[in-house]
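Input chain follows. Return structure tokens only.
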Amino acid sequence: MKHSGSCLCGNVIYEYGGELKKFFLCHCQRCRKNSGSAHAANIFGRGGELVWLQGKDSVSNFKVLGTRHQRSFCSRCGSALPFVSADGESVVIPAGSLNTDIGLAPQGHIFMGSKASWDNALENVPRFDELPI
């Protein structure tokens, strides 16, 4: 099955043709810095090809030296985009970048030992359908 996605400004459009294997919410400090949130939501695919349909020249990559941590993003709007893992074995897809339904729910929270101090009982925080101000 093919899945498609894009960045926020619509400049970059991609397609992934492979099986989506794992979906994790990562709470490590690096993923929190990347996302600006409590966690990153990353889907891992194997055995498929990542194809840039539009805007490939706007895809920038960043790797934290001495680690396996990397990310791709649109150089225009900063949106997170997929990348091929350093070992070339899998594609890491930021869940929020997808435009197609994946039929896969998160399978776990990872790196909980380094989660943010304010990341507790978030399911109990009030919920609003719109900005409440």
